[in-house]
Design brief:
- The protein has eleven helices and five strands, in the order E-H-E-H-E-H-E-H-E-H-H-H-H-H-H-H.
- It is an alpha/beta fold.
- The chain has two domains: 4-123, Response regulator (Rossmann fold, 3-Layer(aba) Sandwich); 137-205, Arc Repressor Mutant, subunit A.
- It has a five-stranded parallel beta sheet, with helices on both faces.
- Strand 4 (73-78), helix 4 (83-92) and strand 5 (96-99) form a beta-alpha-beta unit.
- Helix 4 packs across helix 6.
- It is globular and about 50 Å long.
- The N and C termini lie far apart (49 Å).
- This is Response regulator transcription factor.
């Protein structure tokens, strides 16, 4: 069995019931704090999981606090979920995505998989992600981002936009997490982009950078 802690941003009775039922079977604690950012950052558990209940993937991720994605495991539970949505979530750093109408055992299976170090997405979305990565050409958004950033910022940008968290980027580049945060702030300032989700949209979909 596992030891760890499970969180959600959406504290409806139904969502909390899903969490408690699943957490009990996996020996996970349920954190019901309303100040999710503080609770998440202060958690001492080795394994922590955040469930994101999303209505529209593209619209809702814009409002997620990027600080939450610097650590832990993230699962999207979606009212609607297309292959493109799944690919976008993979790039953003999510470990899994399922439909909100999925039976209870699916959530249990999902959490078990990600705790074992696996991703939990459809085969179609994983194939598309891999093929896109292999055959990647620069979008308009990528060109604009690459021409407005320094060599080090480009390096950080490429890793972040391919799904790595700040901690993972810091480890890969053998620098401190504060250095990565500084580079990210510089990228936001130069490109007028507000957060990680908008950055990912610009990088992968050729959105205008104003």
């Amino acid at each position: 069995m596992y030891d760890g802690e499970i969180f959600t941003l959406n504290h409806t009775d139904n969502n909390l019931l899903k969490l408690k039922n699943t957490a009990g079977l996996l020996n996970l604690k349920v954190n019901q704090s309303k100040n999710i950012t503080s609770a998440w950052n202060n958690s001492q558990e080795k394994q922590k999981i955040l469930l994101h209940f999303l209505n529209s993937v593209i619209d809702d991720v814009k409002y997620l606090d990027e600080i939450l994605f610097s650590s832990g495991l993230h699962i999207a539970i979606c009212n609607k979920l297309s292959i493109d949505d799944e690919v976008f979530l993979i790039k953003l750093g999510f470990r899994a995505a399922i439909l909100s109408e999925s039976p209870a055992h699916t959530l249990l299976e999902t959490i078990t998989n990600i705790l074992n170090g696996n991703l939990y997405f459809s085969n179609e979305s994983l194939s598309k992600f891999i093929l896109n990565y292999q055959n990647q050409t620069l979008s308009k958004g990528q060109v604009l981002l690459m021409t407005s950033t320094t060599k080090k910022e480009k390096e950080v940008l490429s890793l972040v936009c391919n799904g790595l968290s700040n901690d993972q980027v810091a480890d890969k580049l053998n620098v401190s997490i504060n250095t990565i945060k500084m580079h990210m702030q510089n990228i936001y300032k130069k490109t007028n982009i507000r957060n990680r989700s908008h950055l990912l949209l610009a990088y992968n979909q050729g959105k205008e950078i104003n």
